[in-house]
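Open question from group meeting: does this chain pack into something compact, or does most of it stay loose? Before anyone orders reagents, we agreed to write out a predicted structure and look at it together. Recording both the input and the output here so the notebook holds the full record.
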Amino acid sequence: MIAVPDTYDRALGRYETETGSCYVVDNQSKQGGVTLWFEEESYDFPDIPEDVTYGPGTLFDCTVTLTKVNSTGVDYVLKSKDGDTLFSTY
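Structure tokens returned:
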């Protein structure tokens, strides 16, 4: 059996977390979902924020959980500048 890095990280609970300002855009894929942008880095997620206005001009304080090997998105949290949680996939 061949172990895929993403599966390996998830099985061992090996994750890394990135925090900072980000914006969220529709990733325009057939499967749906969003892309979170941290400056030059982007991460795709299938979960679309509910009841939250988002787009390139709307910044959030974000926490993103990624697998260590290939930085595949696992979970994310969007917070207002006041620290209120607006959306979470946890």
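Observations to bring back to the group:
The longest helix spans residues 5-12.
The beta strands are 15-26, 34-38, 41-45, 60-67, 73-79, 85-88.
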